[in-house]
Amino acid sequence: MWITLPPGLNEDVIRIISQKKNEPEFMLEWRLNAYRHWLTMQEPHWAHLKITPIDYQKIAYYSAPKSMKDRPKSLAEVDPELLRTYEKLGIPVREQEC
After folding, report:
1. Which residues span the domain enclosing 56?
2. pTM of this prediction?
3. Claim to verify: residue 4 and residue 27 sit in the same structural domain
4. Which of 10, 36, 65, 83 could join 70 via S-S bond, C-beta 3.0 to 4.6 A?
5. What is the pLDDT along the chain (98 residues), one digit of tens a residue?
């Protein structure tokens, strides 16, 4: 079983994520300041590219197993699409397999 926050990003979501990670107060403040700055930014408009705007409120920003016993026991239990994504990004996940 997994705990996944509903899609969307706001200060409450950032606070929840920070709390779940047991982060110190300074880290929460750093994240909140970064989020506030991000809100003031505009997405770049690259020449000759037709890119659909990203809807950041449709993304779930936190998902984790409810407990360590619920986590995958091996890479065979991990979604193959996730493994392909890591492969494309050059992240050597297979090296971590037990």
Report:
1. 1-66
2. 0.66
3. yes
4. 65
5. 678 899 999 999 999 999 999 999 999 999 999 999 999 999 888 788 888 889 999 999 998 877 777 777 888 888 888 888 888 888 887 666 64
